[in-house]
Predict the structure.
Amino acid sequence: MLVAGFPAGSLGANCYLVAPGAGEQCVIIDPGEAAAAGVEEVVREHRLQPVAVLLTHGHVDHTMSVVPVCGDYGVPAYIHPGDRGMLTDPQKWLGIAPGTPVFGQAKFVEPDDVKELTDGVVLSLAGLEITVDHTPGHTKGSVTFRTPEQQDIPQVLFTGDLLFAGAVGRWDLPGGDREELLASLARVCLPLSDETVVLSGHGPQTTIGRERATNPFLTEAAPLSVKPRGM
C-alpha cells in the first residue's frame, strides 16, 4: 500500500493520499488549507488517479481545499452528517462570528457531490477496503479510517484529530466533549493491535502500542475499553 502525506497550511494539518500502489487509483484524506498544490504534486509524482476525498471531520483546517480538490478531479467528498454543516458554516463551529474570514475566506460552499458516512461502513474505493468508525469527542461528526489487518502488512489508522502522538484533539470548541472523546479512544483505538500505525491529523506518525504505553489519555480511557486484539 502506498501512503503519501504532507502537512498543509498554517496549522500543519496532515493530508494523505492512499493507494494500493504507484500508478493506481487513490483516495485523498483531509485536504486542508492550501493543500491543492501538494495533492497535485503527489498525484503527479506517483501517477495516481483520485477517486474520492475522505474527511475525518469538518474543521476548516482539514477541509479548506475540499472544493477545489474535488473539482480538479471530479470526485465526491465523504463526511459524517454530524459535521456536514461545517462545510458551509465553519465559523459557527469555531465559536466565531458568522462571516468572519477564516484563512482569508469568508464564504464557504460544499463540493458538488457530498456523500455521508455512517459508523462501521466499509468503503470499497480505489482498490482499498476502508472501515469508518464514528469517533465523536473532538467534533460530533469525527470519524477514523482504518485499513484491514493483513499478514506482514501493518494496519493503518487515520485518526484525524482524535489521537495524536502523545496527545489527543481539543474538546473545547462547539461540538466537542471530553467524555465522548475518551469513550471513542476506548472503543476504536485501544482494541487495535500494538503494531497498528497511527497517522493523525497533526504531527508525526506513531503506533497504538506506543500510545498505549505513553499517552496519558489512553491510560485514562483504558478502563472503558475491551481487551486489545491479538493480546
